[in-house]
Amino acid sequence: MHRYVLVLLFIGILISRCNREHKIDPEVQVYAEDEKLTVFKSDIKADTVYLIKDQFFGDIEDYYFSVMGDFTVDDSGRVYIADGAWGSRSLHVFSPDGSYVTQIAGEGKGPGEFLSLYQMQYRDGKLLYNDGEQFRLNLYDTETLELEEIIATDPEKWSMIDDIQGFNVRSVYLISRNRFLVGFELPVFQAKSKKREEKFYYTDRSFELDSNQVYKHQADVFVSSNIKRKGSKHNYVVIKNFPFFERSLLVLTSDGHVFTARTGEFLINEHDAKGNYLRSFYYPTPKVPVSRENAMAISNDLTEDIARDVELPEHWPVLNKLYVDDEDRLWVSTFTEGDYYKWYVLERSGKLIARFNWPGKRNRDSNSLKNKTIIKDGYFYKREEDPDTGQKMVVRYKIEFVSR
After folding, report:
1. Beta bridge partners of 238
2. Where is 8: in which H helix or E strand?
3. CB within 8 Å of 282: residues ≥ 6 apart
4. What is the Cα–Cα distance from 356 to 228, expressed in whole angstroms?
5. Contact 273, 257 (CB under 8 A)
6. Model confidence pLDDT, tens digit, residues 170-222
7. Can you give the pTM of this predicted structure?
8. d(Cα 119, Cα 181) in Å, to the nearest integer?
């Protein structure tokens, strides 16, 4: 966090100095090698991206998703989609042509069953998802579509480590079949301060820590309120995270490098696999003001008191989401004043490849599965909803880069 503040201060100094610089790359506003920071111009000419609707994955004649949940895609183009509804929780496989293959997991507490499913991901022939309710990960072999291993994530495994004592697993990244990068954070109700941290360690296949802390960032901020529902004698604690709160983003490249950002600025940092800071790049980006109406528009009967009283930031975050594709290009979506996101496609160095606009609503929870995107093998996968029927589906778009 201290580096983030210092880098922003340094950016201001560099930009003020850039008027005296002459021999610089025309695409770069300022480059200071000793500070490992590149500041790019905001008006760089770039290609654009056309997304051409190619295939749908979802409801079929023999199966209808009650609550479409998480999804991922393997190297063959097969799509894995979860149904998260109580009583019908299950995991289904679709072939690249959209046809149904099979169900590989269902609801329950036995092998190949789950009670919660999130952070589903694929890497090197392995499919992983987190069943946080049962403190375990389920790992599948995508060649056989069979459950390979159940990995316990019991907090007792790290109960003797002072730095994460009492912490739960917040995020899991599959590095290889024998290694994970794991983020631990203190549960919201146990934290004494709103400023919680997510702390990252490597673990082995059995989820035993095999490294010191390699990275940490600020966890999501929640605000709370005590309410009393009609007809009840008891107070309830309601917590709320607003999409205009600043968040932390993290993605991994194929060589294990970690790219991170705080969403308040278009400032992205690269760390090596051991967590060592390598470099940063920055794009000056317009900011959208936050209003009380924004807060009220994303509240309901339970959270309207929170929305009415919450301290508002001056602006919306700049960044919405950060992804990396199978060619290690970075795909960054940013907030705008309209009902769309502005996307940037970047080289790892931060150099701009393309820019394009895509529909999206900034009032939506940024961590919602409605925001999830997977980019691989020349395709852009997105979970969408038919505006007429309400039917949810995963849509595959073919990516075309077009010169401008």
Report:
1. 225
2. helix 2-17
3. 7, 11, 37, 38, 39, 40, 265, 266, 267, 268
4. 46
5. yes
6. 999 999 888 999 999 998 877 666 679 999 999 998 999 988 999 999 999 88
7. 0.90
8. 13
